[in-house]
Amino acid sequence: AFPSSTPSIHLETPTFRTVMTQTEVTATCVVHSAYDAKVTWLLDGKDPTSRTKVNQASSTTQSISSNLTLPSSQWKTLNTITCRAEHRCFNSTEKTSNVKG
């Protein structure tokens, strides 16, 4: 039986320097879970727009990595970015980072 423990989420956001010097920036979310959780992103509490690229890398047995890429101009207008992990075996878990510069 799998543990019914809540997954841990690690959220990495681009540095201020990266946002200022690159045209596109990427945030990375790593979910550590025994389950193949579905990873979703929220920008200021809303689903990302079509201009935002989400790439969910193949998951290993213990972690899932998801990258969110968006234009720096859009990143600069954000207040918060949220990574959420969902699976029927645990309550949805999320981690929010305040990115207002």
From TrEMBL:
Q: Which InterPro entries match?
A: Ig-like_dom, Ig-like_dom_sf, Ig-like_fold, Ig_C1-set
In this entry, which stretches build a coiled coil? none
Q: According to the lineage, what is the superkingdom?
A: Eukaryota
Region Disordered, as annotated, extends over: 46-65
Give the compositionally biased regions (Polar residues): 51-65
Among SUPFAM superfamilies, the record links this protein to: Immunoglobulin
Which Pfam family, just one, is annotated for this protein? Answer: C1-set
Domain (Ig-like) spans 7-100
Q: What is this protein called?
A: Ig-like domain-containing protein
